[in-house]
Structure formats: C-alpha cells, structure tokens
Amino acid sequence: MKTLMTLAFALFATTAVAEGTHSGDHGDMEMSMGTITKIDTQWNRLTIDHGPLANLEMDAMTMVFEVADPAMLEGLSEGQEVEFTADRVKGKLTVTEIMSE
C-alpha cells in the first residue's frame, strides 16, 4: 500500500504561492525515484540518492532536501525506495510530496 503525504503540503503550498515563494505548479511535475540514505529528524531533512529531477534541471545524484512538513518523515527509513517531488521553496530544495511502499 502506498502512502501519500500531501495534505500538509497543500496548506503549505497555498501559503507559499500566496507569498510568491513557490517556483512552480505541482500539477505538472513528475515524481522522481530515489533511495533514502539518511533521515535527519532534528533538522527535518532527507538525504536521497535520486534519479534526474526534470523540474529542477538536475542530473541524478545524492543530495540533502528539506521536507515541506516534518510529518512527512514518519514511517520512512534509511535504504527505503521512494517516489517524490522536489521543488525550490523559499530558496531551499524541498521534498514537497513523497510516496513509499
């Protein structure tokens, strides 16, 4: 069963768009595949070894992302494969949606 954590982001994105801090429309973004290599609950960050991120014009690599909502970290574990969407939110690379098996 897949878990999709978007409710909190929907509220977050509405605020971000209203404040002019959101760089795109999530409706047209494709999800990317990746493997979580580190979870940092203190700073609400995920390190993900991921494939290309077309919307951010980034090649495959391992990088650290903020999460739009700390609740997104619940149920995730290192080594877990995920599908996710990332965007620039207030200038920071942020996971805005995440799905896991």
Automatic annotation (TrEMBL):
Signal peptide interval: 1-18
Glycoprotein as UniProt keyword: no
Record-linked InterPro entries: CusF_Ec (IPR021647), CusF_sf (IPR042230)
Keywords: Signal
Name this polypeptide is given: Copper-binding protein
Species annotation: Arenibacterium halophilum
